[in-house]
Design brief:
The chain has 1 helix and 14 strands, in the order αββββββββββββββ. It is mainly beta.
C-alpha cells in the first residue's frame, strides 16, 4: 500500500513539474488555415554475417480551417531478417563456398485513419473518424473502425495542450484465425503536447476501445514520443508505443504428442496481450 501511494505521489509531482508554468519557454504556435504535412522515416539495415532490414514510414496530412480540422494518417512498419547458409563444394585445398540467404518477415503492420474535428466553443468540439489496421503478426487481418463523439480541451496554454474525447464506435474485424466479427463499442482518447524546451516537445496519445457486447474485450494504444527540432524542417523523434489487447487474437500451432515427435494436428492458442515498439525516426515537416 505504501509503495502504491509513493508511486502515485511521484506521478503527481512529475506531472506538476512538466505541466507547471515556465514563462521562459516559447509559446505554442497557433497554426493558420491551410495545408500541413509531416512525414516520419525510420530505417535500420545490417549486412555481413547477419542480415536484417527494418523500415517504417508514417505520414500526417492536415487541412486546417478557421474552426475545424481534417487529418489523414497512414503508415506501416516492416521487419525482415535473413539467415545465411554456407556450403563448400570441391576437395580440401580446392573448393568454392556457396552462400544462400533466406529472408523472412518478422513483423509487419499497416494503418490508415481519417478524422474530422469541428469546434463547438473554445473548449469543446465534435468529431468523426474512420480507420483501418492490418497486423497479421498480432492476428489481425483487417480491422475497420468508425467513431463519432465529443471532446474537451482541458489545458491550452503557451506550453501545454491537453484534450480528451469520448465516442461511440462500430468495429468490423477479420482475424487470421477465426471468423469475422462486428460490434459496437465506446472509445476514450487523450492527446497531450508539451514543450519541454524551445526545441524539444513531448507528445502522448492514448486510445482505449471497449466492446459493449463483451466487456472483457478491451484494447489500448499508448503512443509516447520526444521530438527534438534540428531545423525548421527536420526533427529527430524517439518513441515507444504499447499495444494492449485483453482478448488477443488466436494463432494455429503444431500439436505434438511428445516433444520432438510427429505432429498430430494444430490447436488455436492466444497470442501475447502486449506488443511494444521502440522507434527512432527522422521527421520532415512541410507547411
Amino acid at each position: 500500500m505504501h509503495t502504491r501511494r509513493a508511486s502515485c505521489t511521484a506521478t503527481l509531482v512529475l506531472l506538476a513539474v512538466l505541466l507547471g508554468p515556465r514563462p521562459e519557454l516559447a509559446a505554442q504556435e497557433e497554426r493558420e488555415p491551410g495545408w500541413y504535412d509531416q512525414a516520419e522515416f525510420s530505417l535500420v539495415v545490417t549486412a555481413g554475417n547477419t542480415q536484417s532490414n527494418t523500415f517504417g514510414v508514417k505520414n500526417r496530412l492536415e487541412r486546417i480551417f478557421p474552426a475545424a480540422r481534417l487529418a489523414f494518417d497512414a503508415g506501416g512498419l516492416r521487419v525482415e531478417s535473413g539467415t545465411t547458409e554456407r556450403t563448400a563444394i570441391g576437395v580440401p585445398g580446392d573448393f568454392a563456398v556457396i552462400e544462400t540467404t533466406d529472408t523472412e518477415t518478422k513483423a509487419e503492420n499497416y494503418f490508415a485513419a481519417l478524422r474530422y474535428d469541428r469546434e463547438l466553443s473554445n473548449h469543446s468540439y465534435v468529431y468523426g473518424s474512420g480507420g483501418w489496421v492490418r497486423n497479421r503478426f498480432a492476428g489481425i487481418d483487417d480491422r475497420w473502425t468508425g467513431a463519432a463523439g465529443l471532446g474537451w480541451k482541458l489545458i491550452g496554454n503557451e506550453r501545454t495542450a491537453f484534450q480528451v474525447d469520448l465516442a461511440a464506435t462500430v468495429t468490423s474485424e477479420q482475424t487470421v484465425v477465426g471468423e469475422s466479427n462486428s460490434f459496437g463499442g465506446l472509445r476514450f482518447t487523450w492527446d497531450v503536447s508539451h514543450a519541454l524546451t524551445e526545441t524539444t516537445k513531448l507528445t502522448s496519445a492514448l486510445t482505449v476501445d471497449g466492446n459493449l457486447s463483451d466487456t472483457e474485450d478491451l484494447r489500448a494504444d499508448f503512443d509516447n514520443a520526444v521530438a527534438v527540432d534540428i531545423s525548421g524542417v527536420l526533427a529527430l523523434k524517439t518513441g515507444v508505443k504499447l499495444l494492449f489487447d485483453n482478448q488477443p487474437a488466436l494463432e494455429d500451432v503444431q500439436l505434438l504428442a511428445v516433444p520432438g515427435g510427429p505432429s498430430t494436428g494444430t490447436v488455436a492458442v492466444p497470442l501475447d496481450k502486449l506488443d511494444t515498439q521502440f522507434t527512432v525516426a527522422l521527421i520532415v515537416k512541410m507547411d
